[in-house]
Backbone:
């Protein structure tokens, strides 16, 4: 069995490699993320208005942001 320290959280300010997460059989990957109170409240409010889960709202917001980013990159290239 691995030493407990192997699984310890990194010190504050120490960056881990970009998320690996846990891969599920359906092909999705689960990660842990933290939000400040203001962002959490805003996303939660959207989820409540849309009658959806917090996780579903995060997925939608990320998808929209990625699409916007791709469109902006296209526009910058000409």
Residues:
């Amino acid at each position: 069995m691995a030493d407990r320290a192997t699984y310890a959280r990194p010190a504050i300010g120490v960056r881990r490699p970009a998320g690996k997460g846990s891969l599920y059989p359906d092909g999705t990957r689960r990660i842990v993320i933290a939000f400040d109170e203001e962002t959490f409240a805003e996303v939660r409010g959207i989820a409540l208005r849309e009658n959806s889960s917090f996780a579903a709202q995060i997925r939608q917001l990320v998808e929209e942001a990625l699409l916007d980013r791709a469109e902006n990159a296209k526009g910058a290239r000409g």
In short: The mean pLDDT is 84. The longest strand covers residues 22-23. The radius of gyration is 17 Å.
